[in-house]
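Next up, a chain.

===
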Amino acid sequence: MKMKANKALASVSAENFKNDEELYKVLTSEVIPEYEKALEKAKSLEVSVEELTPIKDKMEKALIIYYDALQLEKEALEKTDKALIEQSNAKGSEYIEAITEYHVEMEKLAEEYDVDYQKCTTS
């Protein structure tokens, strides 16, 4: 879900950016709905190992931060508001910190239990 959303967003942003209308369309019809699914999936995950509870919480927090960034971007496009874009970008940076913290904790736990942990390479 998350990877599908990121691929859709990448197809209309950065070097692939054409116009705000196309970005808005993909954001509202593909990216945000996929992140809503990912967030619901994360919230519904049941943790059977106690050590995973705080890590699951970190993942959920990171997804919420990124979802908020997407909502701000959507609002910024609707209002053509540069300040909202800046807020969205700040949330994006906050997401990177949060998801990095999640991956670090997962790597530590995986090492402790001798489990092969590979993080997703598509952010």
Residues 91 and 103 are 18 Å apart (CA to CA). Residues 2-112 form one domain. The first helix runs from residue 2 to 10.
